[in-house]
Specification:
InterPro entries: DUF2129. Keywords: Cytoplasm. It holds the Pfam family DUF2129. The chain is an alpha+beta fold and about 90 residues long. The protein has a single domain (about 5-70), classed as Alpha-Beta Plaits (2-Layer Sandwich), CATH 3.30.70.80. The chain is built from three helices and four strands. The protein has a four-stranded antiparallel β-sheet with strand order 2-3-1-4, covered by helices on one side. Strand 2 (about 25-30) and strand 3 (about 35-40) form a beta hairpin.
């Protein structure tokens, strides 16, 4: 069974040092232009990892991702209006 995972966006000042964030979880993406890291970690130890990451000198801000709370099951109660506009 897969453990519950949660995502975090970590804003950093140094991308080279941000590579060491892999010890806290799985680094999914690193933006070189905007200086942030998207990472996933186990939800049961996420609070402790966030406290440890917040102490690092190159971490500016940590935001939790709400992606797992977004509804992904859709219903077809409404009519499809795109068919009326097609040629």
């Amino acid at each position: 069974m897969l453990p519950e995972r949660t995502g975090y966006i970590v804003w950093v000042s140094d991308l080279k040092a941000a590579r060491s964030l892999e010890r806290f979880g799985t680094v999914h993406y690193m933006s070189r232009k905007m200086h942030y890291v998207v990472m996933y970690m186990n939800a049961d130890r996420a609070e402790e990892a966030v406290r440890q990451m917040d102490r690092l000198p190159y971490v500016r801000k940590i935001e939790r991702s709400f992606r797992n709370e977004i509804k992904t099951e859709y219903s077809k109660d409404n009519e499809d209006k795109t068919r009326a506009y097609s040629l």
